[in-house]
Amino acid sequence: MSKISVLFVCLGNICRSPTAHGVFETMVSQAGLENKIVVDSCGTGDWHIGHSPDERSAKAALTRGYDLNHLRSRQITPNDFNQFDYILVMDEQNLTDVKALCPKSFSGQLELFLNYANNFSDYTEVPDPYYGGASGFDNVIDLVEDASQSLLTALQSKLEIQHL
Ligand code: 4NP
After folding, report:
1. What is the 8-class DSSP label of residue 75?
2. Ligand 1 centre and the CA of 136: distance in Å?
3. What is the pTM of this model?
4. CA 138/CA 59 separation, integer angstroms
5. Which ligand 1 atom is nearest residue 17's CA?
6. What local confidence, expressed as pLDDT, does residue 17 receive?
7. Separation between Cα atoms, residue 164 and residue 159, nearest integer Å
């Protein structure tokens, strides 16, 4: 395993998982690990295939320095289970839906993204902000930044172990 690949999954792939994609990709790049860690995102649903991230997510992310404009929504495919080492989902419904598609042969990690959160122990899921106000989108970034930082630390340790 020379590279580690991470796939973030939510329902529509226009709010939470693109935010995680953009935030984590930025942190990976700032750590100089863009050749070692591959980042992608997708949705379990098909309503928004080909769409840009929700404007409210894009605006909230840009305010914190993360540009989501290059991202386009796609739906999860069977091949994702061959391609990705980590499939990190935003909520319990995503976990149920992805487990239902997951082949027995999948050898990676399928889990809630907030298993990696450090500072938000009262949250286990990233709440869906789609039908709510602006504060929900800021909350998504708070949770995603926290879990992304810890995930990066965990993957950096893994990459160092590979080189021992
Ligand atoms: P996401 O949010 O799963 O974080 O991308 C949603 C986006 C769209 C819808 C629901 C949630 N929708 O019902 O269209």
Report:
1. B
2. 13
3. 0.97
4. 10
5. 4
6. 98
7. 9
> Which fold is adopted by the domain 4-163?
Rossmann fold (3.40.50)
AA identity, residue 134: A
**What per-residue confidence (pLDDT) applies to 65?**
97
Going by C-alpha positions, the residue among 107, 138, 152, 103 that lies closest to residue 19 is: 138
Write out pLDDT tens, residues 22-76: 999 999 999 999 999 999 999 999 999 999 999 999 999 999 999 999 999 999 9
Question: 1 pLDDT exceeds 70?
Answer: no
Mutate to test the pocket of ligand 1, among 15, 52, 75 (most ligand atoms within 8 A of CB): 15
d(CA 14, ligand 1 centre) in Å: 6
Worst-scoring range by mean pLDDT, 1-5, 87-91, 145-149? Answer: 1-5
Instruction: Give dist(CA 52, CA 73) in Å, integer.
Output: 6
Contact 37, 6 (CB under 8 A): yes
**What backbone phi and psi angles, to 5 degrees, belong to 6?**
-125, 130
Which helix (H) or strand (E) covers residue 66, if one does?
Answer: none
Q: With the C-alpha atoms ordered 129, 76, 155, 26, is the resulting torsion angle positive or negative?
A: negative
Extents of the domains making up the chain: 4-163
